[in-house]
Amino acid sequence: MTSPPGEITELLRQVSDGNRAAEAQLVPLVYDELRHLAACYMRRERPDHTLQPTALVHEAYLKLVDQKGTSWQSRAHFYGVAAHLMRRILDDHAREAKAAKRAGGYQKIPLDTALVYAEEKSSQLIAIDEALNRLAENDPRQSRVVELRFFGGRSEEEIAEILEISVRTVKRDWRLAKAWLYVQLSKK
Q: How many CB atoms lie within 10 A of CB 171?
């Protein structure tokens, strides 16, 4: 569903001001894009992940519209925050699963599922998240570029629009961040 330029931004402002009617109008305008974003994130997860893209969209959306007082600059800003929230939700989910496993919570699964399951993916996701958090301390913009590119599946042009920087800067940040993350993750 396409909407006139600025309509989503205006509705976001109204939602931030507590307008429930605007929230009802906003959902159909942003749902497909949020679903696409969630699908990009879920493609990078293990095949038997317990969180479904729809649940990820709903949880992220609830957190997005609950941010009262947020000054939404544009729809791109909204989707950038959505990408960040989805990453946080998946990281939290991975940490909870790891904590449940340490607590001795065993689950019976079929052998063919067990053969496909890659337990180290949760550990890798946590290691990537920790490295991204360290990168964010050193260079927040590079961290956002990685988040939007790798997790959000955004193009360089889309990232440039979201972050309000040039495509050339996005390419440079992406190159530098990948090299930095490679060094950090190879230390583990």
A: 14
